[in-house]
């Protein structure tokens, strides 16, 4: 490998910049050329490609978002789009690619591998919804943002003795809801991976009030449904004044935590190592404290293991 391209794709995640920095600096360290591709696959097809050097990634490790911009590109799912992408890489003499993103981005990475471009995926998404890694870049920052919001909402919930429903992101995964719910002391957590019973939730809320609890927080993962609907339902059933907050995209921003910066740095560097070793169609991950590499097919085709013990613990501790 002589010239590595790097792009970010799909929803941005705090720590993506640290990953870009690692890819660029590790490439330069090994004497390789490295180019940044802006706006994900859309920018690849449009030829938005620029060579990077050590200075191109100065002062970004602490920044949220992605210096390379990002996009979701349905066009890249077509043969025509992929052929155009390969042609652009050839035109710029790029012989290997690091794709930082979630599962949609990895599908593009796999397609490029099948077309002969050596490609490695780096998991970057706040959702933490990829198999073959314990953590994705951005998740830790997102849960810290979420608990900061939960703490603030709890202040006003306490003052007004109110019940709050807070909707968090996560697409089809409940990880953000589970960890921020446990860490934020939510009374109930609703996630797509576990069935919930509205009667039981209401029962628990009412028992809490009888015991003297003056406020409650119910955390809803967006994969379960709209927080607004659930708030209305609880209000109708209890006759209480329920307020709803949708945390939304603020969970995607902000300076990455130390954990995300370190994870992104290790993952970006490992992607370059894998390309130097001649690998392709792999994703990097972390299991325990160890960095691992898995075939991207396994990542895309296998089911994610869901450990419900933390979810259950949150239920026990919020009794
Ligand atoms: O995948 C990250 C994510 O933030 C999900 O949690 C959410 O469902 C989705 O992206 C939102 O996408 P968009 O920014 O396109 O509205």
From TrEMBL:
Catalytic activity: beta-D-fructose 6-phosphate + ATP = beta-D-fructose 1,6-bisphosphate + ADP + H(+)
Protein residues bound to Mg(2+): 103
Any one of the GO CC terms: 6-phosphofructokinase complex
Enzyme Commission code: 2.7.1.11
Residue runs in coiled coils: none
Record's keyword terms, sorted: Allosteric enzyme, ATP-binding, Cytoplasm, Glycolysis, Kinase, Magnesium, Metal-binding, Nucleotide-binding, Transferase
Residues binding ATP, per UniProt: 11, 72-73, 102-105
Cell inner membrane is among the record's keywords: no
Entry-linked InterPro entries: ATP_PFK, ATP_PFK_prok-type, PFKA_ATP_prok, Phosphofructokinase_CS, Phosphofructokinase_dom, PKF_sf
Cofactor(s) this protein cannot do without: Mg(2+)
Activity regulation text: Allosterically activated by ADP and other diphosphonucleosides, and allosterically inhibited by phosphoenolpyruvate.
Main location, first listed in the record: cytoplasm
GO molecular function: 6-phosphofructokinase activity; AMP binding; ATP binding; fructose-6-phosphate binding; identical protein binding; metal ion binding; monosaccharide binding
This protein's pathway: Carbohydrate degradation; glycolysis; D-glyceraldehyde 3-phosphate and glycerone phosphate from D-glucose: step 3/4
Location(s) in or outside the cell: Cytoplasm
GO biological process, one term: fructose 1,6-bisphosphate metabolic process
UniProt-annotated binding residues for ADP: 21-25, 154, 185-187, 211, 213-215
Keyword Transferase: yes
Binding-site residues, substrate: 125-127, 162, 169-171, 222, 243, 249-252
Domain annotation Phosphofructokinase: ranges: 4-275
Family membership: Belongs to the phosphofructokinase type A (PFKA) family. ATP-dependent PFK group I subfamily. Prokaryotic clade 'B1' sub-subfamily.
Subunit structure: Homotetramer.
Free-text function comment from the UniProt entry: Catalyzes the phosphorylation of D-fructose 6-phosphate to fructose 1,6-bisphosphate by ATP, the first committing step of glycolysis.
This protein's name: ATP-dependent 6-phosphofructokinase
Annotated organism of origin: Sulfoacidibacillus ferrooxidans
């Amino acid at each position: 490998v002589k010239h590595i391209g790097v792009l970010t794709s799909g929803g941005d995640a705090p720590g993506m910049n640290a990953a870009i920095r690692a890819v660029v600096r590790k490439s330069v360290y090994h004497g390789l050329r490295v180019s940044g591709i802006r706006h994900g696959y859309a920018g690849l097809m449009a030829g938005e490609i620029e060579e990077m050097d050590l200075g191109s990634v100065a002062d970004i490790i602490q920044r949220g978002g992605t210096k390379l911009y990002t996009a979701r590109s349905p066009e890249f799912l077509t043969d025509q789009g992929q052929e155009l992408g390969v042609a652009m890489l050839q035109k710029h003499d790029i012989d290997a690619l690091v794709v930082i993103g979630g599962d949609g981005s990895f599908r593009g990475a796999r397609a490029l591998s099948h077309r002969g471009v050596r490609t490695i995926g780096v998991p970057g998404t706040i959702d933490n919804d990829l198999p073959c890694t314990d953590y994705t870049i951005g998740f830790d920052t997102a849960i810290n943002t979420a608990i900061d919001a939960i703490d603030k909402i709890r202040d006003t919930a306490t003052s007004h003795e109110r019940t709050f429903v807070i909707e968090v992101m996560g697409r089809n995964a409940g990880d953000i809801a589970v960890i921020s719910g446990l860490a934020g002391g939510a009374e109930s957590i609703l996630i797509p991976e576990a069935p919930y019973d509205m009667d039981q939730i209401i029962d628990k809320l009412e028992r809490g009030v009888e015991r003297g609890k003056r406020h409650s927080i119910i955390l809803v993962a967006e994969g379960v449904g709209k927080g607004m609907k659930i708030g209305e339902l609880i209000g109708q059933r209890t006759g209480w004044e329920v307020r709803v907050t949708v945390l939304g995209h603020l969970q995607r921003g902000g300076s990455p935590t130390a954990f995300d910066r370190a994870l992104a740095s290790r993952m970006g560097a490992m992607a370059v190592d894998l390309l130097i070793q001649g690998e392709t169609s792999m994703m990097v991950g972390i299991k325990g404290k160890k960095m691992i590499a898995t075939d991207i097919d396994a990542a895309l085709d296998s089911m994610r293991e869901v450990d419900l013990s933390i979810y259950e613990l949150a239920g026990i501790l919020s009794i």
